[in-house]
Amino acid sequence: MPELQNGTPPAADPPPPPTAHEGLEPADATEEPPVRPFCCECAFPVLFATAAAVFYVLFSSPAIGWRDGPEFTVTPVYLDVGHPSGFPTYSLLAKIFTWIPLGSIGFRVTLFTALMGAASLFVFAVLLKLLHSPRGEPARAPWLLSPLLLFALHKAVFASSTELEVYSLNTAFLLLLLYCAARWNSGDGIAWLYAGGFLYGISCGNHAAMSLYLPVLLILTLWGEPASENVGKPRRHAARVGLLAIFFLAGLSVYLYLLVRSMTDRLPVDLGRTDTLERFWLHISDAKDSETHFQGLVKFEDVAFVAPIQFRNLCSPLFFPSIPFFLWGLRSLWNGFRVLSVALPLLILINFVFFYYWIDGSSAFLPAIAAWFLPVSLGLGELGRALNARKALKPALAAVTAATIAVSAFFMAQNRISESDAESGFQSTEIYFPDLAAMPPESLAVYDNGWFSMAALQYAYSARPDVTLVLQTGLLNPAMMAVPEPEKMPLAYFPVRPDGKYMSAREPGFPSLFFAANLRSGRRVFFQYGTLADIMMPYLVPDDRYMWMGEMKMDHLAGIKALDAGLYDRFLERSEAYWNALASGGDGPVAVKAPTYMYYILYTVLEYMYSNGRYAETAEYAGKFLTAFAGPESRAFLPYDVLLNLYALQTDSYRKAGDSRAALASVEKLILWRPRHAENYLMLGFLLDEAGDGEGALEAWRRSAELAPLDYRIIARYATALAKHHSLDESAAFLESKQRELLENRLYDSAALISRQLQCLSLPPWEAGPYLPFPAAGPDGE
Amino acid sequence: MIRKTSKPPRRALPKILGAALAFIAFLAFLAAFMEAKAGRELGAARLLASGGKPAEASVHYFRSLNWYSPLGSSQTAADELAELAASLESRGDDYGSYLAYLRLRAALNAARSFYFPRRDLLAAANAKIASYLARQKLGDAGGEDGAAGPAALERATAYFMAIYSDAPKTNEGWYLAAVGGFIAWTLSGALSIFRLFAPARQSNGLRRRIAAARGPLACFAAGYALWLAGMAFA
What is the pTM assigned to this prediction? Predict the structure, then answer.
């Protein structure tokens, strides 16, 4: 470490090559850099961040939130281990807020998120002032207000600051890192570089995705040295990088949290069992869940479609007006902080490449959004400076500021910011609380998708301490998932074998052992997956003896497909056999219900019947399920795809069974039950089209498109019918108007599909064939 | 010799006072905001309760309690939710009463900090919940006239009461150590870096630099140890 051992000052080295930065700073490298009066610099950022904190708090989720929110409520309370990569930095910092004696624990932790959102705005403002500084004239509040308002009210920034998540802290860390880099680059001392390295390590403990930005950090380190720090010798460069690595690792050691906490074996929530080095590595590297958690890199053939959407999301709806300011800002950076002018676009690129699939997941693009807004803000600042320089143009500056405030208000309206959004934070408590309350005494509750919410109710609210909660999350347990090649998922989360290794989901006996282990306690088991299951199960399991199928889903599917006759009865027998086998391990389950995955099983059963030419039977059972899902008594929520495919399947089965009247009657009955359901008219259209009533079909599909104006499948079907029965021009005009509507509503995937349909209009539409649930032909060769 | 920079005049006290005032102002804003929310939910709950919709009313009482503050509408909501549960019980709606008590219990638990709010109501709710669960557990055999008899019911109630009276097990002291240690080692780590590599000390040797950063380095080590200990024992 020559830098520490060698007392020779850097000035003794050969003079460094001049940089653009030198033209704006004193050329004498040995001269002490001017001390920045930090407190004076902070007055405006503090005021703005305080106002933002108040604003974010007003719209914060009041309870445990939704999606990962419930998990992030519980993990700080007991310093638990969250889903990969564990989020130790978040848990440790959010823990402080769980002690605030106001509100529920869920609200307190959301408060932390809101304050971190405000903190990121503070750092953003301070960084902006710093980036303005090379021009000699200090940045003034009116220049900063406009870009800060736009950034604070950007949809992604607002959402991440008002919902319980780790992203606002992540943004604060990222901006702080850029601030450290800018201070180092502007010659304020190498301490800023090392502090940045230390901070980078800690920030990786908040969200592992920060590690993806390592190339940006390396560029800032290796190319960002100011003239005063230019050491010129490779050895000293190496020493600098070595020291940086040491400080980075010191920060990264926050991950010891996972090992130590998991080893205590006292955690209510431990989503990694990270008490061995192997599992520790699997957890922090996201190795066992990467296929579902991380959806892979960009596919080059899709770049032309995805990239424009991603760019527009950076500053939607003002992306195009922001481009000149972005370029102006980059030019300004090039003159003062050259390395940042390269690093920021690289950061955007990395963010886009790695989160390619998350087109609508705006929080995933917060780093890119921040990196876009920085140059844009600088560009706006340059405009402010230019207007301020001439007295005659000062009113124009006021007008620009006022316009930006108006645009920010538009942002707010566009984001549909309202109090009711904040109220949605009660969703988890109000949906899952009745479930938990209804469980029999001393139940064992096995949950998958709703587990996080249940965990929050159990461990933050302590709602039912007599009920034991068992985790089976879809994300963490490949056995639970409809993955096409589960053997590629190396490990399952649950259970852990006696030798301490994870048990493979494909290992024989995995489900049985799991159940036996839990039932041996003699306690009753309660598996709950919502109203859908209540309706479904009487069709699958006799009496009231519900059986939970998700765990054995793969076994069942394998078994079902091997059957050649008596499918449905054998299916029931098999369920009963499982039930009996499991019950022998203890008192047995008394109220076991089905997961939402059940419809996949059901659908596979029907598909099997259909593909074996048992059309009448398929139609009959599809009708039963449709009654259950869509009947007047139904409280079920069914995914649209499933419902539509069931309709299609039933109709097609009736049609192939030669009973088109029954099919028509079935759909008309559904329309009576659910007159405002677009899919009912969709199927009516199919039937009428089949019967040769083209205009009737068109009318049915028109009605369907009215009821579901943004559903691309209905749009596509109506457009096809228009092309067939009216004219191609009419169809194209309809598609173009819908494409615009979809884009306005940010339904980019649907818009793309419509775009493809538009391209296909040059083909005769009847060549595309009708919409059918199963593309594969049945045994009758149709 | 380490070059000593001239210290600015001491202005720590006004800064500390300013920060404390800002924190108090923020807490006051929070309390006012939450009181407004709690009051609105309480109003909705009263409206529903008077409209003969106790189940819906209990949801809004629960919401009001989620905006808990030691003084204000949430306290009234707690009392009224307990009254609602009692009235449901007197009307023979056992499950409705149980659900209302369960909501009361959950909301009070979620409002815990270093203390437990409204222990009086919590104890009453726990007793009612335990009694209901005991009856559920014994099923047809429970109750005064059941095959198991009142003694079995009493035992089962006591069993559930023990479970429900057991407060969530937390060791806040060690949690405090873990969090405090973490804050200490991160802040002192950053401070150590600035001391070790301050531009004014560029010409100093390693020993002098370490001497200058002795305090923060010691704080870093102590914080790290405290952090590990806190995590291990919490």
Answer: 0.69
